[in-house]
Design goal:
Oligomer: single chain
Strand content: 35-45%
Shape: rod-shaped
Number of strands: 5
Structural class: alpha+beta
Radius of gyration: 30 Å
Number of helices: 1
Helix content: 25-40%
Largest sheet: 5 strands, antiparallel
Number of domains: 1
CATH architecture: 2-Layer Sandwich
CATH class: Alpha Beta
Length: 141
C-alpha cells in the first residue's frame, strides 16, 4: 500500500519547471527580436549614408559636366530604390574671381533613418578643374 499524499508534490514541481522553461523561451524571443531590430537599424543607417553620398556624387557630376551649374541655389530630389535624397547646391565666387566655390548638401533617407552630408568643392572658372575640398557628416538635430 502506498501512503496517502505521496504523489502530491509531483504536479506543482512539474508546473514550476514548465513555468521556468516558458519564461526562458519568452526572454530568448525578446532578446532575438531586439537584437535583430538593432541590426536592421544599422542597415537603415548605412543605406541612408549611401544615398546621401550618392546625392553628393550626383551634384559633383553635374558640376563636372557644367562648371556654370547652379548660378543660384538649386534643389532637387532623386530616389534610389526605396530610398531618397534631397540635394541642394549653391555657388559663390571667391575673392580673386578665378574660382567658383560650391556648397553641396545632401539629406539621404532610408526608412526612418536620415543622414546629412555637406561637401565643398572648388572649380577653376577657365579650365573647369574640379577639386573636392571637404566632405562632412553633419549631425541632425
Amino acid at each position: 500500500m502506498t501512503s496517502p499524499g505521496k504523489g502530491q508534490i509531483a504536479l506543482p514541481f512539474v508546473l514550476l519547471i514548465s513555468g521556468i522553461i516558458i519564461e526562458i523561451v519568452i526572454a530568448g524571443a525578446f532578446v532575438a527580436y531586439f537584437a535583430s531590430g538593432s541590426g536592421y537599424s544599422a542597415r537603415l543607417q548605412a543605406r541612408a549614408w549611401a544615398v546621401a553620398m550618392s546625392g553628393v556624387n550626383d551634384a559633383l557630376m553635374k558640376i563636372a559636366r557644367n562648371k556654370e551649374f547652379a548660378p543660384t541655389e538649386v534643389q532637387y530630389e532623386f530616389t534610389l530604390d526605396a530610398d531618397g535624397a534631397a540635394v541642394t547646391a549653391s555657388r559663390t565666387t571667391d575673392i580673386t574671381g578665378q574660382y567658383y566655390l560650391y556648397t553641396i548638401t545632401s539629406l539621404g533617407s532610408a526608412g526612418s533613418r536620415q543622414k546629412k552630408l555637406t561637401a565643398t568643392a572648388v572649380v577653376h572658372q577657365i579650365t573647369g578643374a574640379l577639386q573636392l575640398q571637404s566632405l562632412v557628416d553633419v549631425p541632425l538635430q
